[in-house]
Design the sequence.
């Protein structure tokens, strides 16, 4: 990494294997810094270092280190004193163990560095350590010294490089005592379901899409002031009200998250609470009674029409039967009369 200045040169001690490396910063700050000025004339405010004993300003070359004892006395400590410390990790990153990554508490993580191979001779052992870490799915725990103190580090693979995270010592991490609420609170399943629905609605995000909006706004203010223009107006922040109904707040959050993603309002949270049925009122009862009456009246009307129709059909059928019987009777009478007439007109034969 020729474009990045190394801040420490040494070697990784991997058993009997030594890997020359260069330590470079893996992160950078984009924060905008300000200078202190005199508001009346814009002059810079600078801090000068004065010796209390002589009351005069001293240069950096005249400044050393000292330890303040409990009684307030100062014990001078020289660079030679520090050089005699039994610190085997002064120029070595000594790997002491390999552990699963989930064994490391994120609270312990500090600054991050990249370990660059120190020359062509380091390429082979560097690649060996990198591939061993990949295949084992573990991270290496190491000790190293930086800026006059021994530190703890974690080595892991990032892309095709080895990165090292500085770790706080276990006794430097405070226990979370007295932080959690001491009031007994019960969270029901419906609230958890709505919280899960909100989490699912928010979903995942590509971290590369996130950016520092505050810094961008600050840059706009600086550019406007430099051009002699008025700085842009700051939008009023949304007023936060008291959360009186947790369920309603969760439901509204799910709805707002869906709308922000362009999803239609017809999508409701899967864990939305089923509303209770509406109570019966004096207005609803007559409507139901009218409906029943209408149904009963319709049934009676239909039945009446059916009965009337059946009676008409029966009457027509009876009249038809009577007419048929009358016609049959007339025909029978006419036939009988004809026979009688024929019998009377026929002459009898005389006997000889």
Sequence:
């Amino acid at each position: 990494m020729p474009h990045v200045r190394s801040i420490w040169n040494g070697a990784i001690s991997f058993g009997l294997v030594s890997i020359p490396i260069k330590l470079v910063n893996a992160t950078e700050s984009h924060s905008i810094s300000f200078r202190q000025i005199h508001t009346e004339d814009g002059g810079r405010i600078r801090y000068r270092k004065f010796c209390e004993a002589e009351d005069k300003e001293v240069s950096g070359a005249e400044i050393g280190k000292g330890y303040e004892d409990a009684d307030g006395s100062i014990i001078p400590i020289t660079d030679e004193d520090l050089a005699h410390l039994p610190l085997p990790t002064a120029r070595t990153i000594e790997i002491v163990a390999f552990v699963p990554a989930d064994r490391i508490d994120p609270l312990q993580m500090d600054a991050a560095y990249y370990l660059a191979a120190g020359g062509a001779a380091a390429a082979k052992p560097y690649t060996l350590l990198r591939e061993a870490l990949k295949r084992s799915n573990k991270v290496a725990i190491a000790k190293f010294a930086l800026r006059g103190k021994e530190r703890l580090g974690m080595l892991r693979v990032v892309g095709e490089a080895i990165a090292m995270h500085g770790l706080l010592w276990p006794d430097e991490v405070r226990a979370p005592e007295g932080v959690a609420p001491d009031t007994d609170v019960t969270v029901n399943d419906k609230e958890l379901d709505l919280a899960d629905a909100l989490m699912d609605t928010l979903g995942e995000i590509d971290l590369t899409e996130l950016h520092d909006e505050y810094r961008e706004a600050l840059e706009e203010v600086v550019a406007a002031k430099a051009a002699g223009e008025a700085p842009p107006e700051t939008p009023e922040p949304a007023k936060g009200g008291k959360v009186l109904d947790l369920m309603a707040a969760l439901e509204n959050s799910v709805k707002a998250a869906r709308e922000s993603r362009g999803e239609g309002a017809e999508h409701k949270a899967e864990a939305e609470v089923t509303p209770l049925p509406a109570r019966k009122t004096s207005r609803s009862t007559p409507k139901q009674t009218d409906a029943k009456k209408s149904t009963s009246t319709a049934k009676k009307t239909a039945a009446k029409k059916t009965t009337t129709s059946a009676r008409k059909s029966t009457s027509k059928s009876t009249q038809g039967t009577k007419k048929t019987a009358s016609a049959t009777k007339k025909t029978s009478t006419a036939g009988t009369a004809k026979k009688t007439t024929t019998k009377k007109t026929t002459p009898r034969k005389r006997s000889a």
Summary: The CA atoms of residues 25 and 113 lie 5 Å apart. Residues 268-310, 312-352 have pLDDT under 50 and may be disordered. The two ends are 166 Å apart (CA to CA). The first strand starts at residue 8 and ends at 14.
